[in-house]
Amino acid sequence: MKITGHKTTSVFRRYHIVTTDDVSDAMSKVETASLHGDRKPVQSMRSMKKELKARQICVALSSNG
């Protein structure tokens, strides 16, 4: 929450963001982008949505089996 500025954990629960590895990876990408002066997003919203959907499918499949 410190990285993104969210005040509650609802976004993390909604998108099932629970591992510290995810947070570390996100911070690494933010640092890299800021060092290179990038103003564009590290990952497009479309590709983020595709990745999220794939993760949700994997979670659903693993919980059903």
β-strand amount: under 5%
Intertermini distance? 32 Å
Which percent range fits the helix content? 55-70%
DSSP, total strands? 0
Walk me through this protein's architecture:
There is one protein chain. The protein has 65 residues and is an all-alpha fold. The chain has one domain (10-64). It has helices spanning 10-14, 20-35, 45-64. The termini are far apart.
Concise account of the structure shown:
By secondary structure, this protein is mostly helical. The chain has 3 helices and no strands. The longest helix has 20 residues, at 45-64.
Q: What are its keywords?
A:
3 helices; mainly alpha; 65 residues; single chain
Layout of helices and strands, plus pairs?
Elements lengths: L9 H5 L5 H16 L9 H20 L1
